[in-house]
Design goal:
The protein is built from 18 helices and 12 strands. With about 450 residues, the protein is an alpha/beta fold.
């Protein structure tokens, strides 16, 4: 079977790390199976959907390394949905309902008091022509429900009807259609809810696998029934666990929690974000993958846990540091150049400082220190200043390389009797102004004799 997947967000806000997880799962699944990735915008809510959000979602996905084979907009496909509506009406499985929200709420409460599940009782199927005419003369507009196939012959007598599928993540899943209300497919104002356009598009676009969050598990039984009512076999389904904030709260586009845009603005690397989004909440070790092809090797849909996974931004910072520590200069070169780090020392400088960066932009701080000296006054005692001057006097003439440091520091240690922190800390502060940072062995060749002596306290 050829694989075609889709990522179908509503363009009503910026996507967050949880949305990106779904997109990445689909993208990597397609990659591993030489399949196609459809970017579909579920924008039937014309009031809330905005092109600017669709554009930002596309930008975020491309920045993460996800590229679509085709882009579709549901707002351009209403004719397809109207055709599906006509087919369902002809089949007698789409029926008009006139209840108000208040009436429906009252009926649910009554059913609960009788010990019955609070599902819709299909009262609209018993309306006479006269009752319908009266509702319409009162100005009521119908909403339309899909008649679930959960009865033998009388829809007013639903019976247990199991819909099962082998979920790619969760294994065997079963939904009893008798436990569900007939879903509303069309609102009173004629607009479509999620289910009908989604199923219609999945059929028309040849979606072979639907991979999404496990908050859609219950919906799947209804959707399988709708696929079959429209004469199509349903795709395979996989429902991955959801990411939550550390507090356990759900992520939301509306609140902007952990949005891809905000993570990018914070200087985090796309592969650090992608690695944590994909691997957290799975049986795989959470490590940073330097490329999407490397991440694809680690990705296993079946290794995903069934329980929700907490996304900790601190873990993301750790992976970001790990990624920068491994990043070769050729990959960083253009970005460093954009930060005005581009002379003949740029490569040895990068190799010296990359292990001490939280974000790539932090390299500018170290570049200024190398080129201009410490940015803050030295925090050294008079005794330490005297020690540094003595140590500087013992430096050999240039040129220097990384091997210069060891014999020099051994000689200083032997002459002064200093060791450990008392030996290294004053020298580091004199050279950089900071108590920690890149190895002095790597900084000495960048500074050279003239640069070092310019820092004599």
């Amino acid at each position: 079977m050829s694989v075609t997947v889709r990522f179908a967000p509503s363009p009503t806000g910026n996507i967050h790390i949880g949305n990106a997880r779904t997109a990445l799962f689909n993208w990597l699944f397609a990659w591993k199976n030489s399949g196609n990735f459809v970017q579909r915008f579920d924008d039937t809510d014309l009031a809330r959907s905005k092109q600017e959000y669709a554009d930002s979602i596309q930008y975020d996905l491309h920045w993460l390394g996800i590229f679509q084979d085709v882009t579709e907009y549901q707002s351009k496909r209403f004719d397809f949905y109207e055709d599906a509506v006509a087919r369902l009406k002809r089949a007698g499985v789409l029926y008009a309902c006139y209840e108000t929200p208040e009436e429906l709420d009252l009926r649910r409460k009554i059913r609960r008091t009788r010990g019955l599940p609070p599902v819709y009782g299909r009262e609209a199927l018993t309306l006479s022509h006269a009752q319908i005419a009266e509702y319409e003369s009162d100005g009521r507009k119908p909403h339309w429900r899909f008649l679930l196939p959960n009865f033998e012959s009388d829809p007013m007598q639903p019976e247990r009807t199991e819909v099962s599928w082998n979920d790619l993540v969760r294994g065997e899943e079963t939904i009893d259609l008798a436990s569900l209300s007939d879903p509303i497919l069309i609102r009173e104002d004629g607009t479509f809810l999620y289910t009908l356009p989604s199923v219609t598009d999945d059929i028309d676009m040849g979606i072979s696998h639907v991979i999404r969050g496990d908050d859609h598990v219950t919906n799947t039984g209804v959707q399988i029934a709708l696929f079959r009512a429209l004469g199509a076999e349903p795709p395979e389904f996989g429902h991955h666990n959801l990411l939550t904030a550390v507090t356990g709260e759900a992520l939301s586009k509306r609140t902007g929690a952990l949005s891809i845009a905000s993570l990018r603005e914070a200087g985090l690397e796309p592969m650090a974000i992608a690695s944590l989004a994909v691997l957290t909440g799975t049986s795989e070790n959470v490590v940073v993958a330097p490329s999407m092809s490397d991440l694809a090797k680690l990705f296993d849909l079946g290794a995903t846990s069934k329980s929700a996974a907490k996304f900790d931004p601190e873990d993301l910072k750790t992976l970001n540091r790990d990624l920068l520590r491994q990043m070769p200069f050729k990959e960083a070169r253009d970005r460093l150049s954009a930060l005005d780090i581009f002379d003949e020392q740029a490569e040895p400088f990068w190799m010296a400082v990359r292990g001490n960066l939280d974000t790539l932009a932090d390299a500018t701080t170290w570049w200024r220190i190398v080129k201009q000296g410490p940015e803050t006054p030295l925090d050294l005692s008079e005794k330490d200043k005297a020690f540094v001057r003595e140590a500087f006097d013992m430096l050999p003439p240039g040129p220097w390389d990384r091997d210069t440091f060891k014999p020099w520091i051994e000689a200083v240690k032997e002459k002064t009797g200093r060791k450990s922190k008392a030996l290294y800390a004053p020298l580091r502060i004199a050279v950089t102004g900071l108590p920690s940072g890149p190895e002095l062995a790597d900084l000495l060749p960048l500074l050279g004799p003239e640069g070092i002596q310019a820092r004599r306290p």
